[in-house]
Known about the structure:
By secondary structure, chain A is mainly β. Chain A has strands at 3-7, 10-13, 19-26, 32-38, 44-52, 55-58, 64-70, 73-78, 87-94, 104-105, 109-113. Chain A is 0% helix and 57% strand.
Amino acid sequence: xxxxxxxxxxxxxxxxxxxxxxxxxxxxxxxxxxxxxxxxxxxxxxxxxxxxxxxxxxxxxxxxxxxxxxxxxxxxxxxxxxxxxxxxxxxxxxxxxxxxxxxxxxxxxxxxxx
Amino acid sequence: xxxxxxxxxxxxxxxxxxxxxxxxxxxxxxxxxxxxxxxxxxxxxxxxxxxxxxxxxxxxxxxxxxxxxxxxxxxxxxxxxxxxxxxxxxxxxxxxxxxxxxxxxxxx
Lengths: 114, 108
């Protein structure tokens, strides 16, 4: 069966520091991969999605970037964090059967910026 | 107008009650529809897909009305463990839109 791993679970970082969140998927090939952010009490905001190695689509311009160095690895990065980057970051995958399949989420990373 | 709209609630119901959530979407070309459940401070989890003919999974029934661009979720015989936020999700092509969710509190 397919599983998705996301780490770390919790992260506290100072303003201006760099960020690297990692997500890996097991049990499937060439998944569609997604990064979301959820602010406290708010809905999900799609940040990036990828349909293949090295391919990244950005939904919201900001100081975050994403990379997909391997088929089942998706990384979210920032060179300098802002206070507004605080939130719950979720990685998700879906099967590569077009864009109409349900997405499955990792446990999420709760990021606090001080 | 938001692409996917849900009543934010909260819905406060006693155990055993029947509760219904509604969701409307704006893109008539949308192709797939889902309900997710999100517990407090946890990730969303797929509850069920929604089909045009309507579908049922135990105490949960989902309905889709394409003409009215409307999705519903009915929960019968509510349990304390049903307390969560329920997200309506609509996809079309590579675009997936999550509703902001409806909060449900089931009380003893």
